[in-house]
Amino acid sequence: MGASSVFGLKNEEKKKLIEEIQNYFERERDEKIGIIASENLLEFFLETLGKYIYNKALDDAKTWFETRLENLEADFFVMYKD
Length: 82
Hints:
The chain is an all-alpha fold and 82 residues long. It is 77% helix and 0% strand.
C-alpha cells in the first residue's frame, strides 16, 4: 500500500492525476506543462473544488439511503398479516 499524499490521495493516485492534467493540456490546448505546474493546478482544484464535490457526494449518498430506508419500511409493512 502506498504512502498517503496531500488531500488523502495515495502517491500513485496523485501521479495519475498529474499525468491526466498534462495529457489534457497537451490534447486540448496543444500545450506542454511540467510536473510542478500540473501539481500546482491539481492542488488548486482540490482546495477550491474538492469540498463542493465532497459535499455533493454526501448529499447524493444521503438521498440514496433515505430512498432505500423508505423502500425497506414499505417492504416491512407488506409482511404484516391482516
